[in-house]
C-alpha cells in the first residue's frame, strides 16, 4: 500500500470546520450532513476497510487518531464515523462470515457515494444485546426474500445511513440469530425521530421500525444458533475501547483548550492579573493534563497491541474503557469547577463538552459490569 496521507492532520483540519457548526447542531438537535460530505470528499470514510475489499487498511492506532481529532471538533460526527469504521473492520474478519460480494459492495459504495453503515441492535424491551437475550426483531424467509419486522432504538447516524446491519432472529424452530444487511429506504421502513438527549444531540440516534420489509435473498450476513454466539467478541470490544476512548478524550481535550483560553483572558479586578497566574489554578490544570496523558498512553498502548495481533483479554479492555471514560469526564468537571458560571453558560462551549463527555459512561461495557468482572477475576470466583 502506498504511504498514506497524514490522516490525523487531515481530520484535524476538517474538525476545525465541524467545530464551527457543532453548537448550532447541538442546539437544534439537527444532523450534520455537511460533515459527512466533507469526510467523503477527503477520503476518510473507507480508512478502516481491508485493502483487498477496496479500503485503505488503516491501523487501529491511525483510526484512533482520526476519531480523536473529529471528536475534538464534533463528537456526534465522530460517533457515527466510529460505527462506520467498526463495521468496515469486521468485513475482512473470517469469523464474521460476510459474503464477499456484499462486503465489496459496502466498501465500493462508501468510496464512490459516501455510503455509511451501522449496526442496529438495541430494542425497547431487549435493551443492549450485551446484557443477553434474543432480539424481538424477526426475519421470515419467503421465496421472494426475507420479511423483516421489528423496532430498533438508538440507531446512531440513521439520517445518513445507506446500510443497516440489523440484529435479528429468524422465525424458524429453533430460531437462528444474526445480522441481516438491509438497504436504507426499503418500503415498510420508518424512521421515528425520537433522539432528544442531553449530549451528542446531533448524532441522529433515532428509532427505526420495520414492517414487512422485503430484504433481498443473499443479504443474510451471519445467522447462527443463539448458543453459537458465545459470550461476546473480545476483539470488537477492544477496538471499540480505542475508538470510543479517543472520541471522549477528544471531547475532554476540547474542554481543556477552551479552559486555557478562558484562564489566560479572565482578569478579575481584585486579582489584577489573569486567573492563569494562580498556583491553585495551575495545579488543577496540571491534573487535567495528567488525566489526558493517562488516556493517551492507555489508548495508544491498547491500539499498538491490537495492531500487533496480540490477544487482549476482554476484562482488560473493559477496564481501560472505564478508566478512560471516567478520566475524560473528570477532566471536564475540573474545567467546570475552574470556570464557575462561565463554564455552564450556553454561550461558551464547555457546557456542551460536559454534556457530551457524560455519554461515554453509557456505552457498553458499563461500569458496573466492568468492575464486577474485574473483581471476580481478581478474587478467583
TrEMBL record:
SUPFAM superfamilies: Acyl-CoA dehydrogenase C-terminal domain-like, Acyl-CoA dehydrogenase NM domain-like. Residues 244-364 form the Acyl-CoA dehydrogenase C-terminal domain. One of its GO terms (molecular function) is oxidoreductase activity, acting on the CH-CH group of donors. It comes from the Bacteria. Residues 123-213 form the Acyl-CoA oxidase/dehydrogenase middle domain. Keywords: Flavoprotein, Oxidoreductase. The keyword Transcription does not apply. Residues 15-83 form the Acyl-CoA dehydrogenase/oxidase N-terminal domain. This is Acyl-CoA dehydrogenase. It comes from Malikia granosa. The lineage of its organism: Bacteria, Pseudomonadati, Pseudomonadota, Betaproteobacteria, Burkholderiales.
